[in-house]
Fold each of these.
Amino acid sequence: MAKTTTTQRVPIQYLVIHCTDTPEGRHITSDDIRRWHLKERGWKQVGYTDMIHLDGTVERLVENNDDAYVDGWEVTNGVRGYNRHSRHVVYVGGKARNGIAYKDTRTPEQIKALTKICKEFAEIAPNAKIVGHRDLNKAKDCPCFDVKAFVKEIGIKQ
Ligand SMILES: [Zn+2]
């Protein structure tokens, strides 16, 4: 887990939900994400703090102290222009089995894990918003489901 040297500490404003943009049912590893983001795209850090696997296991990709601030060493590269005050979480999936059509492919286990993450985040940072990548960048389909509706459904007021 690489740390950056920046000393920023800003109040967190967004928890942004993403998908890996990979076919339904396909297992993806954190090494895949590191390869895509660090090697192929040349980013200094991966795009997400946490990764939700198909079986609902949550893997932490970048260190985080889970408070209501974004420290420099916690910054990930999920959405340009929003990273310094956001945390990003990704679920594995987002495409239909043919790999072409966008689809909400969340497994029941992933929904359960995401629910827990969102509820904990809302407790820690009640003034921050939980949004989908596409809510911040209209050119994107990620994460392929209506995050605002989901958040409401699980009982978080924002
Ligand atoms: Zn995304």
Amino acid sequence: MSSTNQTNKFTRFLRNNAALLLLVFCVVAISAVVIAVSVTGDDPNTPVGGNPNDPIGGNPSDTPVDETPKPVIVKEKIYFSSPVAYQSVGMEYTDEEVLFVFNPTLNQWATHNGVDLIASENTPVTAMYDGTVVEVGESYGMGHYVKVDHGENVIATYASLADVQVVAGQNVQKGEKIGAVSTTASYEFADGAHLHLEITQNGEHVDPMAYVNGEIYREVEKTVTE
Ligand SMILES: [Zn+2]
């Protein structure tokens, strides 16, 4: 009986104070949520966000991806350059307007398919542009000569050379030494030491001076990284 009485009292207490109990429960629940948020809010951020990013290096591992050099294709003008540091021009090029120049060696007026660039003996002669040596030879009139295919149907003949340093089939780069100024061109002995330079475009002789003076260029596509 007494146990039944006590149960009834507890049930009656709950029923009479339901509102109060509900209020207390709500306060406790809200407090628990606030505490849980404030505590767990810090915890996940510090270990998960701080630790892995800092030691591994969050920033360094990100920046290379952002700053990875991107290849860009740009057009670059590459000029032909003078093949020799010359002091003066001896016999000039003869075209249809200037049919002949006087050749003091031969003591006669003659056509001259190139220019004679006068320089001290042994002055280096260099390739005017990248190319491939197509012929190395010697003739009585031209002396030692080197023919270089500079691409796009432009072939340069460097003659009256000594100290030829290239062989047929060899690739040469602009500025690379191919020989030296000398007096080996017997037909032009009176010019003294010089480079006899001829240039053909599509098989036709042209005045080499535009090339020598750095007026001729090609646009070359070049991949650069920025
Ligand atoms: Zn000449």
